[in-house]
Amino acid sequence: MLLSCGLALAQENADIGAIELPVPSSVVSKYIYDPETDRYIFSQEIGGYPISLPLVLSVKEYQALILKEKMKTYFQEKVKALSGRGTNVEETQKNLLPELYVNNKFFESIFGSNAIDISPQGSIGIDLGYRYQRNDNPIASVINRRSPGFEFDQRISLSLLGKIGERIQITANYDTESTFDFQNLVKIQFNPPQISELKDLSPGMIPGELGSKLRDVQGKINEVQNKVSEVKQQINEVKQKVNQVKGIINDGKNTLNQARQKIESLKQTANQIASNPMAEANRVSEYLNGKVTEDAILQNIDIGNISMPINSNLIQGAQSLFGVRADLKLGNTTLSGVFSEQRSQSQNITTQGGGKLQEFDLYALDYEEDRHYFISQYFRNNYDKFLETYPYINSPVQITRIEVWVTNRGYQTQNVRNIVALQDLGEANPELTSLANQVSNFINVNNLNHPPGNEVNKLDPNEIGFNGILNSQIRDIATVKNGFGTANVNEGYDYTILESARKLNSQEYSYHPQLGYISLNQRLSNDEILGIAYQYSFQGKIYQVGEFANGEIPGTSLILDGNTNQGNSQNPVVQANNLIVKMLKSSVTDVRQPVWDLMMKNIYNTGAFQLSDEDFRLSILYTDPSPINYMTPIDTSIWPEKLDNEVLLNTMDLDRLNAYQDLVPNGDGFFDYIPGITVDPRYGRIIFPKVEPFGEFLFKLLDNPESTKETYSLENSYNKNQKRYVFREMYSLTKAAALEFTEKNKFQLKGRYKSEGGDGIKIGAFNVPRGSVRVTAGGRALREGLDYIVNYEIGRVKILDEGLKASNIPIEISVENNSFFNQQNKRFSGFNLNHRISDKINIGGTLINLSENPLTQKANYGTEPVNNTMMGFNTNFSTEIPFLTRIINKWPTIKNSTPSQLSFRGEIANLAANDPRNTQLNGETNVYIDDFEGAQTNIDIKGFTAWNLSSVPINDVPGSNKEGLESGFGRSKLAWYSIDQVFYSRQPDGINNNDISLNETRRIFIDELFPEQDLVQGTPRTLPTFDLAYYPSEKGPYNNAPNSFYSSDIKEKWAGITRSLNATNFEQSNVEFIEFWLLDTFTNQESTSNDLGELVFHLGNISEDILRDGRKQFENGLPSTSEQTPIYQTPWGKVPANQSLVYAFNSLEEDRTLQDVGLDGLSDEEESTIFTNGPPDDPARDNYQYFLQADGGILDRYKRYNGFENNTPVAFSDTDRGNSTEPDTED
């Protein structure tokens, strides 16, 4: 239940305050100041008559009231403007906040103006409510099932643009729903004022030396103009006396020409001064309204989200920074300094021919496990032979049909069947089977290399009930163990049962029709089962292994079930028939079984998808200790001459062909890229043409031809060369066990591949800071927009120059990627100096420091912090060479108008690696390979809800060798629980302090076990416990033993619980021990030597058949009012005959009454006919009772808490509820 109300505030254009009652004009409101009392008097009048009592205010009250009224009036005007009403709407709508002015000359001199303008845009939403949450999950504690509390949620989306004077600009973006921190930007920028336009500037207005020069020029222009006027007058006079003053006219013309030249020269000088605009004006200070000019030393200050680009190929800047940056200028020298936190990380990508080059590095043990399987020992034994002549596959087999079955993890209901997977099915070699030693004449053929088929041994499903060892009970999932006749078989090894197995569709796997192996798209877990049925042709004959789902074996059969305790009547029951298939993987990993060899260990994944042979390279190296691509002899006397300095690619038969796939001696030096044989391009896999390339294959290569004692399975018989190089443990042990032989795991697969994809090259990032991508080709820097373009949002670089891509020149892409989840603080600081000697020559220097702090108090191996300083110098020279252009243009067919240029760039840099901060110990920098604080991983198994009643142990308990009801005669009462906190806080009726102070009921505090442990504030001070209460003198559930039998010695009794573990591969998980603290709840007076018992842990495959009958109980499969499902009658009661696909009840109370009856499938009334030695109200002793509904002490209240019958009621209350929401099952 959720109760909430919401309040939203936003700056939106909504029709707010449309109804307004104006104050009548006849009402006069006024304030009168009384100097005698120092008070203000507020009054309202109409026609001189007061209409209200006067309000007397102090000076402070008066000022507060006036401020309140002005604020109210201001926001009312804003509301009217937003709705389009009122006067001066456009002016009022400009901003919610008014422009502020600071009447201070000092403030104005600093910021260039006295105005402060802040313009916010966005919205603010607030949700305020009260949440009352009630959780009726019975697993939760009573106290934790109700959680009241206030709910407060705010949503802010705000952008802010502010100006302080003319020189400070503030830009901010903030959104509470932004995904990453770098999306919220804050920047404060100091901008020097720009030079004003000087088009109206006159020389008299310009102060200083420049003004003086301009005034001199203007004076000379005026002087020349006066002379011109005088000359003109003289010319007029001369015209009248031409003949007399010819000499004067000629002199005047010369003087006029000189004056005109002088005027033109002065005009050009003036135009040059006024065109740039007036470059000389850059040196004028204390002008432009008294503001700083571009000649100021401090040019710019940025605070917040900044960048620091550096024009250098050796030292890279950064784009995504948060800190302070300042730009300074001293004449022709510029200096940029930064002190910031870097919020990005750099990475380099190498591409070639338009694709991205990726490198891979694998060791021999890095094969893909639990994914690729031979479908028979025959195909494993002949794999090397079939590929001796690749690319031609010398195989007589063609697989035409295949079905693959796996464990149904997703509880799918389509394409499911019960299967029985047999390890030896279809195998003709007795040495590669487990039953040939105990079943006489098990193999029906004489050829050990006979192709697989159902008929080759006595597990032939077509011979059930005839000449084989299988009988009809193999078809019923409850009687599979009895379906092998007299053969002594073990589940998990010789066979495995898989109920509701899922058939994979053809898109979930692939297979090789000639080499006989399958590859699954998804890796199998350690406890999953894999079975297969297939059909193939061999020399014109069709063979089949296993049974197909649409074959002769129907999914269900109607049978007559006479197994009932209510007479000899026979009930028709629908039975699900088991399919018999070939087992490729069991839920039990045993390397001694033949099925272990069916898992392929010669396929390696490079990590690529859609692999291409273009630019694919592979090398096989041996690390000894540095990598080399050949093997060196240990014993030269028996070293094969063929292997002398032979490249390992040739040794492993991976380089036999040339580029045209023609066989050439010693290959062509490159890996033979043959899809389907040596590579799987779709998933980027490398496939060796040998089953055991680093095992038996090398063993045979290094064999001493003059010795007969060398045996592959006996390592003691190996010669020195074999002991050095053969890695047999890789194939005979699990990967986890083989990892301990590090001295053998030295073969290395190293190479590269080109990944193609989409429009452009993926740079492995998105939302890349603009300007942070740099591209070089063969050391030459490319230009963005001309040679390449960047899509910064999706992180792709597209090369525009097709010739560059076709040239196959390596292209280096460096990118700065925003760190999404970076927790390591990185400090980026330094400066960049540049001095312009002339228009042609620049020199510069850079000093940058990048430092990190360790993620923890210790620097761990692989995440070491850095403290690096880079210092460098650079110079640029560029000039035009006109004569070179003229020389080129003399060529008859060339006419070039572009000026030739000579450019030179030189750089030098040095990297100094300093000691990182907070990594010193005793004055030395330390990196911890492993501090062993996280070396121990716990698997918590004390949660009582995960435990269930156990099946009867195999040995050493009464009933372990019995069937039916007798198997449960030794089971005693056991309760398992964790005491609810309600007993310690709100103490139910009948519970006192003494009840919760006993050893068996009290809380355990942390400092009892760990007195030195420091607790974080707010963490619980008590330890959760897993409580077990064992009553050996009381019968357990479903125990129908005679009372006389059960009154015997309690040492003959037992009780047990079981649970599943997610970590099933203990070897890989390195599970080594069980750790627990046990509290002895007995006092010295209570405990005697006769009370001693045993606590036994059993890890491994445990039967879930709690009531031993071979069938699985699941309560929701029992008949109900809505569906009459078929059932089996067992000695214990009723069991569903349908397959269990889903474990869930419906919500009908009448159905719940019929189904929620426990593991026997019987109600109390029905139980009385079978469990004749139990109490009348609960014959099977399986009834459930909630601990708050029971009476007595705490132990008595939990005595029936683990019952199965009526433990999931539809209706419940605070004092009467179930312990689960799911049906009880034997699964």
Can you put this structure into words, describing what you see?
The structure is a single chain. This protein is α+β, with helices and mostly antiparallel strands and 1227 residues long. Among the domains are: 17-82; 203-295; 346-354 and 760-818, no CATH class; 358-365 and 610-755, no CATH class; 372-598, no CATH class. The protein is 14% helix and 28% strand. The chain contains 20 helices and 52 strands. The strands form 13 sheets. Strands 1, 6, 7, 8, 9, 10, 11, 12, 13, 39, 40, 41 and 42 form a 13-stranded antiparallel sheet that branches. Strand 51 (1127-1129) and strand 52 (1134-1136) form a beta hairpin. Helix 4 (208-240) runs antiparallel to helix 5. It is flat and about 160 Å long. The model is unreliable at 1-17, 194-202, 273-292 and 564-568 (pLDDT under 50).
Q: In terms of topology, how is this protein built?
A:
Blueprint: E1 2-10, E2 27-34, E3 39-46, E4 49-50, E5 55-57, H1 59-82, H2 89-92, E6 100-101, H3 105-111, E7 115-134, E8 146-164, E9 168-175, E10 185-190, H4 208-240, H5 246-274, E11 298-308, E12 318-330, E13 333-342, E14 344-352, E15 355-363, E16 372-374, H6 377-386, E17 397-406, E18 416-422, E19 495-503, E20 509-512, E21 517-520, E22 530-538, E23 541-545, E24 556-561, E25 571-576, E26 579-585, E27 603-605, E28 617-623, E29 627-628, H7 648-651, E30 679-680, E31 685-687, H8 696-701, H9 720-725, H10 729-732, H11 735-738, E32 747-755, E33 761-762, E34 774-777, E35 780-781, E36 788-791, E37 796-799, H12 802-806, E38 811-818, E39 826-836, E40 841-852, E41 867-880, H13 882-889, E42 901-913, E43 920-921, E44 924-925, E45 948-949, E46 972-977, H14 982-985, E47 1004-1005, H15 1006-1009, E48 1022-1023, E49 1027-1035, H16 1043-1046, E50 1057-1058, H17 1066-1069, E51 1127-1129, E52 1134-1136, H18 1149-1155, H19 1164-1167, H20 1194-1197
Helix pairs in contact: 4-5
